[in-house]
Amino acid sequence: MKKYITLFFVILIHAGSSAQNLNYILRSRAQLPTVERIDGKKVTTVEGKKITGSSNRNESPRLFTFLGSPFFIDNFQMGTFSIDSNTRSIRAPLLVNLTTDELMVKLSEKTTILQKVNFTIRGHNFITHNGRFYEQLYNGRVKLLKRYIRDVIPLSADNRNIASGFEGSQFYDGEIIDKASYYLVFRSNSMKEIKLTKKSIINILKKENKSLLARSDFKSLKENDSLIKAIETITILDEKSLIKALINAENTIMP
Length: 255
Description:
By secondary structure, the chain is α+β, with helices and mostly antiparallel strands. Helices cover 28% and strands 36% of the residues. This is DUF4369 domain-containing protein.
């Protein structure tokens, strides 16, 4: 039994190391990843070097292929970006790499890679928090943020680990899995992850109310109570209905 447990942890460590190597490859500066459709599936190709061995030596560069896409939109789109709130927004073609939290910007025929910037693309407003990109779905007293996650999973030689259920003879170095997480940001700037369920959101709000009561912040307490009531009236909770509840709750407490 002990031998099997040890083997299990060895597999986990190897998978984690492989995933880190694949993320490293997707940060390639020599060539931007390209995305095309093959057999109806998105496939990302990028040239890179894979780190091997304890000495972090690099293999010779080669093309790596991943099932899925690391990008928010798979090609450059016109948008605006700003380094901080004090600088003027710049309009330029943008490409968002969600695997690496990097914004690629075309300026004067050159592609510049930026991090820790705020930007807008195709009507989606993104902000940077702790070095990561979040879409700001609602910017009110209580903010709603969405984190797009592109996890890179290494695949076995026979593609058995493909989560999407794709079957084919083509070998891939990894699969990029699409996920999302949601967060509420309160007046105190505390950021709480939520699930898109009434129970999850109401529990978070009630926990936040306990800390507000301890600080005698009755104004914020009233705002949260109003939001709880708005959420309790929702029949089917999703992004749109949650944003509507946030708006309705804010309107009820406006002077």
